[in-house]
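so ive been stuck on this for like two days lol. basically i have the seq below and the ligand is zinc ion, smiles is in there too. i just want the complex predicted, nothing fancy, no docking runs or whatever. if the output looks off dont worry ill sanity check it later, just need somthing to start from for the group meeting slides
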Amino acid sequence: MEDKPKTLLQAVQQYGDADASLDEVVDSRWPKGVVCPHCEADSPMFLRTRRIWKCSKCRKQFSIKAGTVFEDSPIGLDKWLPALWMIANCKNGISSWELHRAIGVTQKTAWFMLHRIRLAMQDGHGGKLGGEVEVDETFIGGKARNMHAKERAEKIQGRGPDGKAIVAAVLERGGRVRAQVMETRKKPDLQAMVREHVEQGSAVYTDALKSYEGLDEFEHQVIDHAVAYVEGNVHTNGLENFWSLLKRGLKGTYVSVEPFHLFRYIDEQAFRYNNREDKDDFDRFKAALSQIVGKRVTYKALIGKEGETTEAF
Ligand SMILES: [Zn+2]
């Protein structure tokens, strides 16, 4: 295989070659040799002209896309891989209109590609967070765009939930962030999230919201933002940083996100946040590529009952 690409330009050049792009995904998916996704038999026959395999045991044919987020997509890897590269590495995200123009597919196709890639970027979890953990929640989006100016001024003052989505996150300092859309920010919901993601006995830092009272199995310390933002180790500045990245991405690129889709944007931003340190663009690309298997989403499932996306441009 060629040297690993360092830039988007090199990725486009390298993966524009059908064999090179296939090699890259095979290397990521089956580092020990190709395995039939239907019956898991090894050593299938490679049908070179069509770039598919035929299983010598169950006799079924399969492509590299079978059982991945690329499944049933007519888009070639020469476009999928640069798209994956861009999304894994653009700090503030990328809109379907930008992707549409950059790689030459329709905006609708680009929108679907983005969502499939976000699905790949979803955290597979893997144990609880521990050590020093920040917990915080914030409000995102809402109906402010459609309000009259006066009404808007009234509603945006203070952090009222008026039609806004609630997002909560836990961050292990020096480690990973996990964020999710919440039904409410009441005690049962927020505390269930903390208990799901944080090891008992960890140091947990929150603000003075009453919902956090009673996290007794943790070393819970509170920073009252009415008084100060930092007291020694006790602060939620790591999550403040994550919120600002998330909001910048949503504001600059997505503008208006259906609540229905919000969790996918959050997954995307959490992926970049969790892969920000000690990694170059190729590493982030490979990290996303390593997560394409075993996930599928259909267009119907994506649009759900919400109809077409209202993503702005
Ligand atoms: Zn088979």
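The first strand starts at residue 45 and ends at 47. Residues 143-147, 152-160, 305-313 have pLDDT under 50 and may be disordered.
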